[in-house]
Amino acid sequence: MRSTLVVGHYLSCPAGSSIRISRRKMEPAAELRSAFIQVLRSRRLNPEVPLTVELGKPVAHPMFQGNTIQGRSEAMESCPKENITDFKEKLIEENLYLITEEGEQGRLPVLIMSLRESPRKRRPSIVFLHSSYKCKEWLRPLLEAYASRGYIAVAIDSRYHGERASNTNTYLEALVSAWKIGDTMPFIFDTVWDLIKLGDYLIQREDIDPAKIGITGESLGGMHAWFAAAADTRYAVVVPIIGVQGFKWSIDNNKWQARVDSIKPVFEEARIDLGKKEIDKEVVEKVWDRIAPGLASEFDSPYTVPAIVPRPLLILNGADDPRCPLAGLEAPVARAVEAYKDAGCLEKFELIAEPGIGHQMTPSMVKQASNWFDKFLK
């Protein structure tokens, strides 16, 4: 069964926003969004197509890549939930595919969970994004917890993950190919394109309040949430978890190693191609510019984080996270604070860096995210 949707892009303030911002103040964010959308469009290998929806089935054997350890997640299972009688019987699970463009990676797998019985016709919705090498099924504890509290919970497989992967090295192979050929953007940007298309779909659902769509994610998913919110104002409440960093700051301050090590094969390939004996900051900068143009320059956190104003933004990081060094957030946070002050809504921005925590999503982060969404979406 297939249905065709007529879609468009919203690149303005969220509907119903009570914050008044002058045209002068909005122009930089609007210009950044326009430039970013142009970059996303520049490497679409296949023509855009009308957004269509295909029904799917639950995934029997989810794909986990690399050395990912499958099992329970204490952090995700700590998410607050309502004690509902016969919850499993009342839980609705939808599996579908959005066709965001032609080609294999243009088929976006989506998992949606909600409660069958709800007093509200239109409910708030939250998009959840998995970390590297995992998949949407990994997020099931979060989806169920939020569904129990009246949200419509949505998860996707990011590019080259889950149902979009053919083997346990698909993501790393895609990164190397992006460096070699330069025609795709598997690190962050191509999934942001999918999230814009997902927004086109979500606002047309009769059970979702289009002004109350949140977005969050862990690690790579946190980066996806951050950039999707910077690009698309329909994401009205934003909580990136262990995902926000200063890419240029890390290069300038020789703090790029931990991030590079998480996807090292592409940097090793670049090192060889550039005739280097070891990976250095020149290699790092050239890789970012090749596989995610602007990531360490005009679209870095000092510019894209303030672009989220005036929407509520909570950044959750570990104070000792080597992949997202806290010192690298000084510039984006300072600019965000100034922007939120100018908009008259400083209470809508917060950075929480958990002491003694590295690159890890903790139960307290999950609960803080939950409280933030309840405060601003319910």
From TrEMBL:
Tell me where in this chain the Peptidase S9 prolyl oligopeptidase catalytic domain is found.
Answer: 147-362
Gene3D superfamilies attached here?
Answer: alpha/beta hydrolase (3.40.50.1820)
> Taxonomic lineage per UniProt?
Eukaryota, Viridiplantae, Streptophyta, Embryophyta, Tracheophyta
Q: InterPro entries, from UniProt? A: AB_hydrolase_fold (IPR029058), Peptidase_S9_cat (IPR001375)
Q: What is one process in the GO biological process aspect for this record?
A: proteolysis
- Domain of life of the organism in this record? Eukaryota
Checking SUPFAM superfamilies in the record gives: alpha/beta-Hydrolases
- State what protein this is by name: Peptidase S9 prolyl oligopeptidase catalytic domain-containing protein
Q: Which organism is it from?
A: Dioscorea zingiberensis
- Name the Pfam families for this protein: Peptidase_S9
Name a GO molecular-function annotation: serine-type peptidase activity
